[in-house]
Design a protein that fits this description.
0% strand, 3 helices
């Protein structure tokens, strides 16, 4: 059997790097925006779970315990991150070449507003 000789050319093809479609600053801003919105959603859900479980386990009025304190801290954090995410929504959409779908934009705004609505409900209840 005869051995085949390999050519002296490079066996691997040179990698062709495509230029990024968006500047890195815009990509970073988009990631920060999406993390703010996602963090707000998680904090609102955990807030509702903690408040609901505290109300279910301790039905007496005006009880202050660790769960409600932690839930209030989560609501404050959700208000801060939701406000940042809500402010960044139009900025990110105007800077990007490919905009997010309209349904995602509306969901982001709804998530950003939800902690403020919960705060208004808590204040009205007190």
């Amino acid at each position: 059997m005869s051995k085949k000789r390999r050519s002296s050319k490079k066996l691997s093809r040179p990698e062709v790097h495509q230029p990024p479609s968006e500047p890195q600053a815009i990509e970073s801003l988009t990631v920060f925006w999406s993390l703010c919105i996602f963090a707000t959603l998680v904090m609102v859900i955990v807030f509702l779970i903690l408040r609901g479980s505290a109300a279910f386990l301790q039905p007496e009025e005006n009880t202050s315990n660790t769960w409600t304190g932690f839930a209030d801290l989560l609501l404050f954090s959700a208000i801060v991150s939701g406000s940042v995410g809500g402010i960044l929504t139009p900025i990110v959409q105007s800077q990007r070449k490919r905009r997010a779908p309209k349904s995602l934009q509306l969901a982001a705004i709804a998530i950003a507003i939800s902690p403020w609505i919960l705060l208004a409900l808590l204040v009205a209840r007190s």
